[in-house]
Amino acid sequence: MPRQVKTPTGVPGFRFAGVACGIKQSGRKDLALIASEGPAAAAAVFTKNRVKSPSVTAGARHVRSGRLQAVVVNSGNANACTGPGGLRDAEAMCAETARHLGIDAGQVLPSSTGIIGVRLPMDKINRGIAAAAAALAPDALQDAAQAIMTTDNGPKIAAATCRVGGRTVHIAGIAKGAGMIAPNMATMLCYVLTDAAVAPAALRPMVRRATDATFHAITVDGDTSTNDTVLCLANGVAGNSRITRGGEGEDVLEREITRVMKELALKIVADGEGTTKLVEVRVDGARSVAEARKVAFTVANSKLVKTAFFGQDPNIGRFMMAIGNAGVPVVEEAIDVALGRVKVVRRGLAVGTRESAAVKVMQRPSFTVHISLGMGDASTSVWTSDLGHEYVRINSDYRT
Amino acid sequence: MPRQVKTPTGVPGFRFAGVACGIKQSGRKDLALIASEGPAAAAAVFTKNRVKSPSVTAGARHVRSGRLQAVVVNSGNANACTGPGGLRDAEAMCAETARHLGIDAGQVLPSSTGIIGVRLPMDKINRGIAAAAAALAPDALQDAAQAIMTTDNGPKIAAATCRVGGRTVHIAGIAKGAGMIAPNMATMLCYVLTDAAVAPAALRPMVRRATDATFHAITVDGDTSTNDTVLCLANGVAGNSRITRGGEGEDVLEREITRVMKELALKIVADGEGTTKLVEVRVDGARSVAEARKVAFTVANSKLVKTAFFGQDPNIGRFMMAIGNAGVPVVEEAIDVALGRVKVVRRGLAVGTRESAAVKVMQRPSFTVHISLGMGDASTSVWTSDLGHEYVRINSDYRT
Hints:
homodimer; 15 strands; 27% strand; globular
């Protein structure tokens, strides 16, 4: 967990705003702005879904230079399945933001989240950008965190500090998402901001690895949205000597960025609508990390395993079935499974005597399923939630 | 649909029995026997799950010769995750059946379905085999269909007849399964019996293709059990000249076997616990059948799509998101989606004006989602169910 436990209000050299511009019928905040005082090193990871929001297309184009100075996010409308008009809208959001900040439109990354298949209401968005630009403040991180929310139960913020080359470096992140729960208002968005000085060429692999270890290791329903974005901006205000690829400070900064992203990622799993459990599925003894991930995700995504989590049912059939379904040549006789510290499968056979101990583990709000494949040395963890009545209610009834 | 609508009671040259031997605490029938009057050509398809029941291992070994004379099935215990002892139990079931019928143990295929991780109660099973052998009757197909049930709401039987070389050939099948719904009592089993004379070398590819087009094209929850088995026995009593590979009668017999299997497969989807919808996901315009299947199954297995079916919600976001997630390089601008005959996506853009017509389609108990990828000529269909409150209730509460 991050060392800085108090919720941060900002990061040196960044200003924030979150306003309501009328996209959400509820009148809640729906437009966020983040601006750096100067150009910042930038690295991003976007959705792998083949159906992408034009906002993602525009953002990917702008971040390619490795430098950005602002982020503009609207919630309530995903600008997805909106065609060439949607791409024009995304670029217009950037141009309007740039105009207010006196920067180039290519320095702005746009994000959208919300309903799919409907064009953005550009009048409202332009008014929102003007209001947000006027409201920008160094201590308004929380406002921005609120303005990117859709179905989230609350804003998600995490932070850390570390020492790099004798300077204190600040890192803070905001995120939204409750898994790909309600695609009408879906998407996972995360913005991590730091005052570290770091070369874009060093930041890029850092952000990719941190994303793989965190946001790419969580699953609520196995689906990926059209708009998922993880962005990191590093504005260099801390004054450390610039971190280069393989150079001093790279490890410590990556560790802290990963720490912040992991806290945000677990907040997303725990915030899955109807979620009552946060479960780590740990696989070791695999021949490769890729095979460990396959097994972990097959178990973590199985509807039958997830309903068993909800039902607090330690029956081994569901775990063994899911492990066998992963497309990995596992050897049944080599498999061990434990719930917390309670072994329930040993060498492929049920350990029948300790079921009440296993039930007790599953009654906890958070526990680990530990799967040992006995085939090699590779391991991984993924985090998932349970599948309960509330999930179905929210996902089937939300239009009515 | 099969031409013969009346539920059949048997197939010439086969005898059937279904008895209660006490594996199920409810006292319901739990042991089925099917016996041919002579050796029959045999072909089977088994689960691809790496964690297999020893009953499957034994059955796969016995069917390799292409000749079988009997099937013994117990329900209530899956004989899975039972190790070497479980394999001895499966072989002992075959030996005991063979002893009563006066045939070789290698002529018997054993199947098991039910709770995982518990050894078979062999005393009860041996008594059940004796009782079933004594009860064998040519018109007791329904008894066998009942004895293989676990969570099924009722027995599943389908039948067809056709003309081969001037002779009338009979085909009947029984199946159990409500999707891989409750692994404690899970598995899909299907036995298709025909009096056609057919060479094992012709029967094998026929059964494989028919299974691909039917049982391999349904999904309730995307999981595959440890015991899934499809077996076809052809005893030749019809007296047609033996059908050989590529020879006369092959096409018509395969068509009718496929017809029977499809009826049984759709009965399994419709019987999914908590299921209120039977939905065909049809994909065309794909570059290959493999890619069409990937897209169809990604849509058909998406928890978000399935809850939308339950909620009768034609919002296109869920369909487009799932299509984009299939790992197929689809082109968003080329995608059309229709619900029944109501187009909801045209060239990647929402067709916003006919939503009430789309809702009406989804209110039906059965409808088609038609996805056109616009990339090629390949197409496929898969069948799925919705994901509703009852699914979660049954799969989380069934132990309590």
